[in-house]
Every structure is written in structure tokens, then in C-alpha cells.
Amino acid sequence: MSRHTDLDRTRRSERTPTTLAETESDPALTDDPTAGNNLDKIRDILFGAQVRDHERRFTKLETQLLAEAAQLRHDLKERFASLEQYIRTEVEQVTGRLNAEEQGRTHAVGALTAELHTLAEVLQQTAAQLREQSEQAHRDLRNQLQHQTVSLTGEFTQQHATLSATLEQAVQQLSHQKTDRASLATLFQELSQRLSHDQPPQQA
């Protein structure tokens, strides 16, 4: 009895899905409802434990996959949140640096503009002072030239008058000296005549 039972179990375990498919495709078995129930029982006996084991494994695997998917979504969500926070922090820092640089450049440009305005005013004042000094120097030089011209004209007139007076005096002296020479020549001539005639000279 035990051997027969073991043999039946061995024969049942040796049945393959092909044999089962052939059994299911047999018209004699499919037409009989009792045979269909028996077929379900046979299928349950042959593959029930394996199917349930596969179902447990599939259920466990599905649970693991769902848990891993949930954990993955959670990790991705945390990573995306961390990445978003990092990008936001970096953008804020870059924006802050850009704003600071812009403010610094604006301040530098304002300071440079003020310096340029101040320099322009200083240059204008310097140019006005130089222009005024140049005009004053020109006026002073013209006044000095006029004064020197008047002074030289007066000196020239005075020297001309002096020279004219001196020349006139010299001419008069020369004329007087010429007259004296003519009288002396006449006297010498009369003396010569008197000496030649032995006459005493006349009183002049």
C-alpha cells in the first residue's frame, strides 16, 4: 500500500505541463464537468505548492520593490530638495556678489564722476587765472613799452637839444676863432709892410 502511494506520488510529480496540456486538450476530459474539477484538483496537487510559493515570492518581491521604489522616491525627493536648496543658496550668493559688485562699481563710477567734475572746475579756474595773468602781463608789458618809449623819446629830445646847443656853441667858437685869425693875418701883413717901409706900426 505504501509503495503504491509512493509510486502514485512519483508519477504525479513526473507529470509535466505538456502532459497536463495534453490532458486539458483531450475532448473527452473537457466535455466532462467532473473531469474538469478533477483537472483543477490535479493541477492544485501538482503545482499548488509551487504556485503558492511563487506567489509568496512574487508578493514578497513586489513588496520589496514597492518599498525600494518608495525609498528611492524618498531619497530622490530628499536629493532634489537638497540640490534645489544648494542651487538656491548658490544663486543667492552669486546674486549677492553681483549686487555687491554692481553697488561697488556704481559707487566707484559716482566717485570718479565727482572727481572729474572737480577736476574740470579746477581746470576751468586755472585756465581763467592763466588767461587773466596773461592779459595782465600783456598790459604790463605794453605799459612798460609805452613808458620806455616816452622815456627814450624825452632822452632823445634832450640829447638832441644838448647836441644842437653844443654844436651851435662850437660853430660860434669856430667863427670867433676864424675872425681872430683873420685879424691876426691882417696885423701880420701890416707889420710886414711897415717893416719893409721902416714905418712904425699903427695903433689898432
Can you describe this structure?
With 204 residues, the chain is mainly alpha-helical. The chain has a domain at 2-106. 94% of the residues lie in helices and 0% in strands. It has four helices and no strands. The chain has helices spanning 2-14, 17-24, 27-31, 33-197. It starts with a helix and ends in a 7-residue tail after the last helix. The model is unreliable at 1-30 (pLDDT under 50).
Question: Helical percent range?
Answer: over 70%
Distance between the termini: 223 Å
Number of helices: 4
Major sheet description: none
Our estimate of the beta-strand percent is under 5%
Shape: rod-shaped
Low-pLDDT regions: 1-30
Rg, rounded, reads 76 Å
Task: Encode the helix/strand succession as letters.
Answer: HHHH
The computed structural class is mainly alpha
Secondary structure: number of strands: 0
Averaged pLDDT:
77
Summarize the structure.
The chain is mostly helical and 204 residues long. 94% of the residues lie in helices and 0% in strands. 0% of the residues are buried.
Name its key features.
204 residues, mainly alpha
Secondary structure layout:
Elements: H1 2-14, H2 17-24, H3 27-31, H4 33-197
